[in-house]
Each structure stands twice: as structure tokens, then as C-alpha cells.
Amino acid sequence: MKGWMGKLKVFSLLGFLALALAGCGKENLTALVPKGYGAHTSMKLIILTTIIMTFVFLVVMIVYVIVLLRFRAKKGQEDYIPKQVEGHIGLETVWTIIPIILLIIIAVPTTIATFKLADDSDAKDHINVEVTGNQFWWHFNYDDEKVQTSQDLYIPTGKKVYLHMKSSDVIHSFWVPAIAGKMDVNAENTNTMYLKADEEGVYWGKCAEFCGDSHSLMDFKVIAVSPDKYEKWVKDMKSFDPDQKPETAAAQEGKDLFKEKNCMGCHAIGSSPIQTAPNLTDFGNRSKLAGVKEPTKENIMQWIQDPESMKPGNKMTGKYPAVSKDEAEKLAEYLMQLKPSDVTPESVSE
Amino acid sequence: MSHHDVLHPETLPAEPEKATLEGRNKYLGFWFFLGGETVLFASLFGTYISLRNSTADGPSAHDMFGLDLVFIMTILLLTSSLTSVYAMYHMKNNAFKKMMLWLGITGLLGLGFLSLEIYEFTHYITEYGFTFRSSAFGSAFYTLVGFHGGHVTFGILWLASLMIRNAKRGLNLYNAPKFNTFSLYWHFIDVVWVFVFTVVYLMGKVG
Amino acid sequence: MTDNANTNNVVDEYQKTKNKEELKGHLISFAMMIVATLIAFGIVASGVMGKIYAIPVLVLLAVVQVAFQFYYFMHLKEKGNSMTALLIYGGIWAAALTVTGLGAITWW
Amino acid sequence: MSVTATQKRGLGSAIWDYLTTVDHKKIAHLYLAGGGLFFILGGIEALLIRIQLMKPENDFVSAGLYNEIITMHGTTMIFLAAMPLLLGLMNAAMPLQIGARDVAFPFLNSLGFWLFMLGGILLNCSWFMGGAPDAGWTAYAPLSTTSPGHGVDFYILGLQIAGAGTLMGGINFLVTIINMRAPGMTYMRMPLFTWTTFITSILILFAFPALTIGLFLLMFERLFGAAFFDVSLGGNAIIWQHLFWIFGHPEVYILILPCFGVFSDVFSTFSRKRLFGYTAMVFSTIVIAFLGFMVWAHHMFTVGLGPVANTIFSVATMAIAVPTGVKIFNWLATLWGGRITVNSAMLWSLAFIPSFTIGGMTGVMVATVAADYQYHDTYFVIAHFHYVIVGGTVFGIFAGLHYWWPKMFGRILNEALGKTAFWLFFIGFHLTFFIQHFLGLMGMPRRYWVFLEDQGLDTGNLISSIGAFFMAAGVIIFFINIIYTAAKGEKVSGDPYDGRTLEWSIASPPPHYNFKQLPLVRGLDPLWIEKMEGNGKMTPAEPLGDIHMPNNSFIPFMISFGLFIAGFGFIYHNDNMIGTIAMFGGMAIALLSMLTRSVKDDLGYHISKEELEKEAE
Ligand code: HEA
Ligand code: HEA
Ligand code: CUA
Ligand SMILES: [Cu+2]
């Protein structure tokens, strides 16, 4: 069997596979199509390092292939004894110095980028959001505006939005690949990072630090809207009246059940400091239920009746009296009409 | 070299602890072990330093620590280091009984140190209600100082078993390395204590 | 009890004087260690130094003591121990990194 | 005890022999068998991972079980498979390479093995006792401190015991190499594998204590109510991360350096050339180890240490590419102008170069801190480290096994089977892990029990899973090869490859005293020198005389067994009386065994000159 030929085949096969693989992944999720300041910064370094690495790899491979082509033992060479070379100072120097130069080329922009991304000296001039990571959901508190929301983070495009992040339990990590790199969310200190989105869109966010059973279901969305829409959204959220009467009778019954079944003990509707469970003020506008499921009525009912089946290990299971199918339907009815604003994920994703 | 030579040598060489390959191996291996212990204690010191102010509203170092007791403990342990040097001096001169005497004194000084430490711990627990579970500082303090105390305890047990086992045998090439390793260990405990009293007590008092 | 160690005690005179000299060195270093300890405790008990000065001085005194222990009591200075010494420096290096790492950057 | 005598004994006494052996060559067999077993276990866990991730929202295993599987996969592979296999190779070859009759501490050597084995068994008992650890192999607090059940306790105690064994192995090798080299074997004449064993042991010595303390703190927290990581009592969970990675980063070099040694020896043997740039190779190993202690925070770039710490650690990390590059190029230069024979050992070694280079380069990419904000905790990192670990460590282990198999067992592994296994594994390896770079960047974090539909991740994951089965097929064929070779493998002489180093100057398998007379070493590649000068064999450095050998001992097993029982005790002492009894009982067994050891003089025995003469060639 010919070693190097097999290897060449494998490598070219892999290369094609990679290319064929649906471009670069799903838009608004993949880090390979950056749409925010942080992601652009990282991407530039990714491209720079990839180019340098490709160069290094080619150099190694060229020598490697030559070696395998030229120096394999041939017939009749059984007794051939190659020259026993000790080494070569010149060569050693060359392959020490060149990598050092290449690394300096990487290190300088890396340092600059790292300090830029960490610079929060102008935070007070921008929007600030307190982010809390919980097993397995996210809470967003717009303290200056007195607006609370969960799962969906609304930000204006083209502006820096500072996130001050803290965990209420174990470590999580806040990651919106298309907009910015990730930052851990610890319980002992507040970490700060900022987002700056180029264009409107619903961006996928993920929890990147292992945090328990439903770590893989701790998704959230960042909804970037134009600054005007953002202002409107804030206004709508602020003026939302949790006591306002729902339109349908079923929703009204759902509203009562929401109190009766002790949902209110954990979930706030409207701007309330309660943070034990997702704030449901704009639940009707959520792009996903509990971060990952389609927010259809059936799914919401299933969630209310048996959240464990959708998100193992979640902190809602078993904390409220049993809910019948009928009751669940009414609760869903109520929750789905909670639409304080017409600035919604749908309004930007079209 | 036959077994007889090892256990009953005609003469003892100048450095009996390093005269056999086994002895040299033991000596070197033990040094490396101590190298590992250095990192072990460094990890504990690092943890302690980063948690020393995390008192969770419980008592702090400044509130509790008194210097007198620690000073006496320090002198006891430092002296015991010197007495073990005397023991090794006599080992090299092949004066077995004198060696045993000084080793005994070393052990007693160690015991004295240990009793004072136990007294100190009970004092903190009863006077201040300061325990292992009080705060992160409490956990770090008892773990660091307790690890050192554990090493002292182990050293004393080790010394006792060495002395009892060899009481009637005199010095030979088989046990000389063992005595020597013990003395290395004992010095190391002293080294660690120097840092304990500096970092925990003195720096705790300073603030 | 037969103390057979005494029957074959052939450590020669030269060796004995050498051992004695070594002991003298040990006594001196012990005295220095006591002095270092006294100074350290003195600084803290008297409160003559501010915190910023006291802590580095205390650490320095500790390091000096440890050097004495290693080099005199534990015989690191003797020839033939160079590999040991090299490795111990490695350990001290790793230890120093550990302490700095944990002590300094945990709360950054 | 001659070879024939060994063969005549029954199974029972053979088992007893292995339970009590202090012979480094037999301990090597034990390590290889134990490590091999755990490699299969870890591999099966890997297959379960890949089956679960074969398609989106798969429900092959539950979330809880998946977390246990990945935790055990990582922990098993690193601590119970890769490291013991490497320790096995070291035990098998290193003492022979320096011309030693034995290791410095045969007793400790055996103790080290049994601690590893029983620690590993303890850890795996968790599967049957209420669930395995599920906080990842990194066991980050507070996830690990709050994980319910006893899984994480098994992790703590199992690793504590196994880790103690590894530490002993490290000290043993260090002293062996410093004190027991044959006459003339100066440091700068040691084969590269011996050098890397030496440096690796230093890494073990200085890295493992940090883990020991980390595990102690975790244990105090979980079992005795301490508050190191409990924020409400002022604790700080980041301390665990520091301690873990102060250990963890050197650990990855513990995994790779010995393999660098294997490759160096294999390349020079099969290209029939002296290793190019020997001094540079030695020096770069030292530099890698040295730098390896200064970079741990590159696993913590997103923790929020701040830009100063992040860039310092980033640049320090990149620096490691330089000495590693020196190695890659010196290997290429060794091959250059050689007369290259490609057999299985060489195939694994040749395949290592491109595979590891890719892994190393992605290493530098993840070290680029502002880019790591994207890579961290995604499949890009999974791809990086499997490229270096599988493409480096596992390839190295396979290369070493093929290379030294005839030395260890007197029979050479079958070439056809060896090559088939290689190609299946090699293709599967790239299929599985190359695609994962893209998966990571496309938004797939690691430790994800499921990935959702319609995220563009389906094809990539499927390909990755298919690759894993190719690897499995390769591994299975390798094991078939072992069985085949044991039954009908070709018997070989002491020097089947025209070798260069001392291990090839004695019989295969070597007699239990290794060298009848210690060889006189006259330079690098001592056997090669003698061959070139027409002597064909080593000149003895001493007249034939009595050989001092250590006694077998059952005490290492007993000490480890005591700690094993005590391990259960610690885990269950809060639950019931039996736990407390086991805790004290186990400690008593261990301590009494130690006491027995220290009270009973053990001076070993001698093989007399006459016996040796009788066993003449
Ligand atoms: C065998 C094990 C092994 C080895 C050898 C390495 C080698 C390296 N590793 Fe890797 N690493 C791991 C095992 C290993 N790693 C594991 C297990 C993890 C994850 C742990 C976890 O989180 O679970 C990890 C994670 C990890 C991270 C953290 C990523 C993250 O979580 O975000 C980083 C970051 O810097 C990193 C960097 C490096 C670097 C720079 C090297 C370098 O040593 C590589 C050097 C080699 C080369 C560069 C190639 C050859 C060189 C040349 C041909 C010269 C020219 C080259 C250039 C100029 C670039 N590794
Ligand atoms: C030495 C280290 C090592 C090795 C060799 C491997 C080998 C493999 N690993 Fe991994 N892996 C880790 C160390 C290692 N791994 C670590 C540290 C983690 C992180 C864990 C964590 O996050 O905490 C990880 C995580 C990890 C993940 C990510 C899980 C997640 O984040 O959710 C994946 C996914 O693909 C994976 C896959 C594989 C595969 C397919 C192999 C394959 O190479 C395996 C090949 C072997 C086989 C397939 C065995 C075949 C044997 C048989 C079939 C039995 C035959 C029977 C007889 C002969 C009797 N590993
Ligand atoms: Cu939260 Cu993962
Ligand atoms: Cu690392």
C-alpha cells in the first residue's frame, strides 16, 4: 500500500467535503458570517491565522511528500546505510526564526483586538443591560429603562449595548456567534461585554458553558431592530399594563388560573423584580418557547403540563399544582395574547 | 554487597545514608517527592491567599490571631529542625545512641508544637465559633494549617515507628538512609511552617 | 542491649572534624533563622511598618529562612546535588506560578 | 527462574505472579492491559456519543445519561487509557534503553500500577451505584459541587487514588534515569524516548499536586461541608478552574511528550539514520515543558480575567509552537536522505506528522484570544484536541506498541492486519474530527446532548459519526491482531529491526534481570555504533557477577485495595454506618500494609554468578 497516495486522497476528499458542506452554516447562527462588531473582530483573526496555518501546513506537507517520494527504501537497497547526519545549526535557526516571525504577525493584532473588545470605558454613554444566567434560561433587565424581559434580548442596530452578566446558580456562557464571541456568566463577579449588530435580524444565542442537563436547550435570541423600533419597543414595554383585561373569555380564565396555579409565584408579567422564572410580559411575541420549541399552542400546553418532557432538569417541574389539559389550554390562550409591542421577532426576520 | 554487609557492616562509611544505590535512590526520590509537595502547598497557599478576606461576615484573621502562641510554636518547630540536624550529625559520626536521643527530642518538640496547634484550633472554635464551615476563609485556613499539622502528625508517627523498629539494631546501611529521609522531611515541614506563619499569621495581623 | 554500632565505629578523625565544622555552620544558620523570625514577629507586633512595606519584607524574610534550610540543613549546596537542585528550582518555579496565579488573578 | 519454568506454572500462580510482581517489564504488561481495557471502555463511550449525535434531536440516550457518558469518556480516556498506556510503554522500554537492570523503586512501581487500576475501577463502579459523574471531565464548580447523587464523589476519589499512583510512577522514573544509567550513558546519549520519559515525569511531579489539592478541596466541599467554591459564604468557583488547569495544561504535554519520544526513535530506526538535531530535540522538549506551566489560563479566556492576563497567556501559549515546530522539522530532516522502511509502526508515525500539525495549528488558532471567544467551548476545540490527542497520543501509542511488541513478547505483530487497522482508523479519524472544526464555527457548542434541527449542523454530525465507526473497526482489527499474534505470530530475534538503542541488544523478551552484564555505552545510539564498528554487540562494562533483584510483594496490592475500600467509605460515610466502617477499615488496611512494609526488612535476593553462567546463551 502506498502511504502518501492514500493520504493525499483522504485529504482532498476531506477538503471537498468541507466545501460542499452547505457553505458556512445557518445564517444568523454561524460565526462564519459575522454580523456584529465582535464577530467581525474574531473573524479577521480567524482568517489571518487560517492563512498563516495553511502556509505552514503546505511547507510541512511539501517536505513530507518529497521525503516519502524520494527516500523510501528501494529494492536492492537493503544494505544501504545513509549518511549519519548530526544536525545543522543553520537549519535549526531558520525553523526557529520563521515561526517566531509568523507568531508575531499573529500576536500583534490579537493583542490589539483583545484590548478593544475589553474596553468598557464608554459604557455609561450606551445602553446597559443586566443579564442573568439561570438553569436553563436567560433574564434581561434594562435597568435604566425599567424594562424586564427573558429569553429574547432586544437591541438597536449600530449601537453598542453593554451587557453586565451574572449567574444565579452555576456558570453559563453567553454566546451569539453571529454578533460576538462568548463571555462566561459567573456567580462571583459581573462580567461585561458589548454587542453591536450591523443589521436587523433575529440572531441565535447559545449557552456555551456546560451547566447541567438542559445545557443544550438553553438557547436565546438577540433581536436587533433599528434604533427607532427599539425606542418604540421600550416604550411599549414600559406602558404595558399587566392588569389589563384580556380580550377573550378563555384568556381571562387563563389569567385567573395563572394566579390560582401559583404561576405568579415565580413568573412576573410586567416590570417586576421577580426573577425566579422567565418574565412573561412579551411571551406572545417570543420566537421560541422556553428557548428552543416552536411556540405553538400545543407545545405551550405540553410545556405547562409537563415541562420535563421538553427540557430535562428544568426548575419549573413539580413546583406548581397539576394542570389539566383544559386549564393548560386556557393558560396558553392567556399567555399567547401577551403582546405588548408590535416590534416582534417576526417583524424583523422578514 | 551481600545482605550481611548491609545490615551488619564491618565499618560504616562517612555518609552511610548515601553509601548504597538504594540509599542514593531513596535520597533523590525523596527530594523529588518534596518538590511535588512544594507545588501541593503552593496550591493551598494560593487558595488561602485568594480567600483570606472572604469571611462572609464571620471572624477575620485580624480579629482572632494572637502572635504569642504562634511565636512559641515557631520556636518549637525551628528548634526541632536544629535537633534533627544534631541527630544527623551523630549519625554521620556513627554514634547511634546520641542520634536516638536527639531524634527523641525532635519528636517531643514536634508533639509540643502539635498540642499547641490543637489548642489553638479549639480556641478559635469555642471562642469565636470559627469553624471549617463558617466561611470560605474558614475552610481555607483550616485546610492549609491543618494540612501542615497533618504533615507534622505523620512525621511524628513515622519517627516513632523508625525509632521503635531500630531501637535494638544500631546503625547500618539499610536504616541510615531511612533516618536521613526522615530528617529531610522534618526540615521540609519547617520550611512550610515558615511560610504558614508569615502568610497566615503575620500577614493576617498586618491586614 | 548490644550497641553494635559502637563496636565498628571507624569514622576517622578527619571525617569527624569535617562533620564538626559542618555542625558549626548549622548552628550559625540556626541563629540566623531565629533572628529572621524575631525580626518578622517584631515588625508585626510593634506595628512600625505600614502594610505596603511590611508584606514584602515579611516575604523576603521567609525566603531567606528557607534558603538557609535548603542549603544548610538539607544539604542542597553539596556537590553531586546539582540535578536535585535543578529540579527543586523547577518545583519552586511551578509553585511560584501557582501562588501568583491563584493569588493574583482569581479576582480580576 | 528461567523461561521454561515460567511456562510450566499454572494459571493461578501466573495470576499471583502478576499480583505481586515488581518487575518493570511485567508491570508494563499490566499497564498495557489495564490501559487497553479502559481505552475500549472510553471508545465505547465515544461511540455512544457519536450515535446520539448522528441526527438532530436524537433520543438514543437521555440528557442525564449523555452527560455521564461524556464525562466518563473524557476522564477515562485521559487518566485511565492514555496515561497508563504511556506508562506501560515507559516501563517496557525506558529501563532497557538506559541499560538498567531495574527501576529505582520496583515496589513503588507496582504500587503505582495498583493505585491506578483500583482508582479506575472505583471510578467506573459509579455506573452501577447510582450514576456516573456528570459534570464534565473538568468538573467545574459549582456544577460539580451541586451535582446530586454520588457521581462526582466517585470522580474525586477515583482520580485521587489513580493520581497518587501516577505521581509515584513519575518519581520512580526520574530517579531511575538519574541514578541507574549504564556506564557511559551520559544524559546527552540517552535515546529520545528516555529523555521524554524524563521530562514527562517532571511534568507529572509538578502538575499532579495541583490536581490533588483541587480534588481535596472538592471533596471537602462535597463531603465535609467546606465553602471554597460557595459564593454565599465568600467562596470562589474560579479557584477550581485555576487549580484544574494548572494541572490540566501540563497534563496535555504529559500525554504528547512521550509520544514525541516514540516517534523520534521510530523515525531514526526506520530511516536508518541518526536523529537529526538531537540536541535541538532534547532542548525543545525541555522548553515545551517549561512553557507548559505558564499557559494554563488559555483554557479560561472567556472567564473574564481581563485583557492583560488574556494576552499574556495567549502569547505565552503561541510560543509553544516554536519548539514544537523545531521537532516537526527535525523529524522531517531525519527522514530526509534516509532509507525509509514503511511498516505498521512507521505508518502510525508518518501519519502523525500531518495529523498533529493540523491539531497544533488549530491549537495556535484557539490560543489567539480574541478569536477564541468564538472557538471556546465549541466543537472547534473538540476538533483541536482530538487532532492532537488522537493524531498525536493515540497514534504514538499505536506506533510504540507495534515498535516494541516484539521486544516485549518475542513475537512481531502481523503486518497485513496492522496496516488494515491503521488505514481504517486513520480515515475514520479525519472523517470524524475534521468536520468538527466547521461544526464549531457554525454554532455548535460542546457538551450538547442534542442539536436542534434546521441549524445547518445535520450533515456534519452525520459524517462525524460515520467516521467514528471506521475508527472502531480499526481498533477491533488491532485487537484481532493481538490475538492472532499471540497464537501464531512470527517469532523474532532480539533485534528484528536492525535497531540502534540498547533495548535491541538483549533477547526478546528480555530475561528478568535485563542485562547479564551492564553494557558499556560509547555514544548516542550505542548498539548502532558497535554494529558500525563491526562488533555487532555491546561490550560489557563489568565482569559477570551476582545480580541483586528485588523480592515480589503483595503489599502494593493490599495498600491500593485498602484505599479502594476507604474510597467507598468516604463516598458513603454521610449516608450510613457501613460507609463509616469502610472508611476507617479501608484506611486501616492501607496503613497496616504500609507499616508491614516499613517494619519488615526487604533486602531482595541475588542471582548467583553460577546460575547466570548456567543460563548461558
Ligand atoms: C495531547 C494533547 C494536546 C496538545 C499537544 C495540545 C497542544 C496545544 N494546544 Fe491544546 N488542548 C488539549 C490537548 C492538547 N493541546 C485539550 C485536551 C484541550 C481541551 C480541554 C478541555 O477543555 O476539555 C485543549 C485546549 C486548548 C486550548 C483552549 C481552547 C478553549 O477551550 O477555548 C488552547 C488555547 O490556547 C490550546 C492551545 C494549544 C496549543 C497552542 C498547543 C501547542 O502545543 C501546539 C503546537 C504545535 C504546532 C503549532 C504544530 C507544529 C509546529 C510547526 C509546524 C511550526 C510552525 C507553526 C506555526 C508558526 C504556527 N489547547
Ligand atoms: C485520550 C483522550 C481521548 C481519546 C482517545 C478520545 C477519542 C474519541 N473521542 Fe473524545 N474526548 C476526550 C478525550 C478523548 N477522546 C475528552 C477529554 C473529551 C471532553 C469531555 C468533556 O467534555 O468533559 C472528549 C469529548 C468528545 C466528544 C464531545 C462530546 C461533547 O462535547 O458533547 C466527542 C464527540 O464526537 C468525542 C468523540 C471521540 C471519538 C469518536 C473518539 C475515537 O477516537 C475513539 C476511538 C475508539 C473506539 C471507537 C473504540 C473501539 C472499540 C470497540 C468498538 C470495542 C471493541 C471490543 C473489543 C476489542 C473487545 N470525544
Ligand atoms: Cu447554561 Cu449551559
Ligand atoms: Cu492547554
Automatic annotation (TrEMBL), chain A:
Residues 249-339 form the Cytochrome c domain. The keyword Transmembrane helix applies. Binds a copper A center. Residues 124-236 form the Cytochrome oxidase subunit II copper A binding domain. Gene3D superfamilies: 1.10.287.90, Cupredoxins - blue copper proteins. The chain crosses the membrane at residues 46-69, 89-108. It catalyses: 4 Fe(II)-[cytochrome c] + O2 + 8 H(+)(in) = 4 Fe(III)-[cytochrome c] + 2 H2O + 4 H(+)(out). Residues 23-121 form the Cytochrome oxidase subunit II transmembrane region profile domain. It is a multi-pass membrane protein. Belongs to the cytochrome c oxidase subunit 2 family. Subunits I and II form the functional core of the enzyme complex. Electrons originating in cytochrome c are transferred via heme a and Cu(A) to the binuclear center formed by heme a3 and Cu(B). This is Cytochrome c oxidase subunit 2.
TrEMBL record, chain B:
The keyword Cell division does not apply. It is a multi-pass membrane protein. Signal peptide: none annotated. It is found in: Cell membrane; Membrane. Keywords: Membrane, Transmembrane, Transmembrane helix. The keyword Transmembrane helix applies. Residues 1-205 form the Heme-copper oxidase subunit III family profile domain. InterPro entries: Cyt_c/ubiquinol_Oxase_su3, Cyt_c_oxidase-like_su3, Cyt_c_oxidase_su3-like_sf, Cyt_c_oxidase_su3_a-hlx. Pfam families: COX3. SUPFAM superfamilies: Cytochrome c oxidase subunit III-like (SSF81452). The chain crosses the membrane at residues 28-49, 69-89, 101-119, 139-164, 184-204. It comes from the Bacteria. Belongs to the cytochrome c oxidase subunit 3 family. PANTHER family: CYTOCHROME C OXIDASE SUBUNIT 3, CYTOCHROME C OXIDASE SUBUNIT III. This is Cytochrome c oxidase subunit 3. It comes from Tigheibacillus jepli.
Automatic annotation (TrEMBL), chain C:
It is a multi-pass membrane protein. The keyword Transport does not apply. The chain crosses the membrane at residues 27-46, 52-74, 86-107. Pfam families: COX4_pro. The keyword Transmembrane applies. It is found in: Cell membrane. Keywords: Cell membrane, Membrane, Transmembrane, Transmembrane helix. InterPro entries: Cyt_c_oxidase_su4_bacillaceae, Cyt_c_oxidase_su4_prok, Cytochrome_c_oxidase_bac_sub4. It comes from the Bacteria. Belongs to the cytochrome c oxidase bacterial subunit 4 family. This is Cytochrome c oxidase subunit IVB. It comes from Tigheibacillus jepli.
UniProtKB/TrEMBL annotation, chain D:
Its main location: membrane. Keywords: Cell membrane, Copper, Electron transport, Heme, Iron, Membrane, Metal-binding, Respiratory chain, Translocase, Transmembrane, Transmembrane helix, Transport. It catalyses: 4 Fe(II)-[cytochrome c] + O2 + 8 H(+)(in) = 4 Fe(III)-[cytochrome c] + 2 H2O + 4 H(+)(out). It is a multi-pass membrane protein. The chain crosses the membrane at residues 30-49, 69-90, 111-130, 154-180, 192-219, 239-263, 275-296, 308-333, 345-367, 379-401, 422-442, 462-484, 554-572, 578-596. It holds the Pfam family COX1. Residues 10-522 form the Cytochrome oxidase subunit I profile domain. Pathway: Energy metabolism; oxidative phosphorylation. InterPro entries: Cyt_c_oxase-like_su1_dom, Cyt_c_oxase-like_su1_sf, Cyt_C_Oxase_1, Cyt_c_Oxase_su1_BS, Cyt_c_oxidase_su1_bac. The keyword Zinc-finger does not apply. It is found in: Cell membrane; Membrane. Its EC number is 7.1.1.9. It comes from the Bacteria. NCBIfam families: CtaD_CoxA (TIGR02891). Belongs to the heme-copper respiratory oxidase family. Cytochrome c oxidase is the component of the respiratory chain that catalyzes the reduction of oxygen to water. Subunits 1-3 form the functional core of the enzyme complex. CO I is the catalytic subunit of the enzyme. Electrons originating in cytochrome c are transferred via the copper A center of subunit 2 and heme A of subunit 1 to the bimetallic center formed by heme A3 and copper B. This is Cytochrome c oxidase subunit 1.
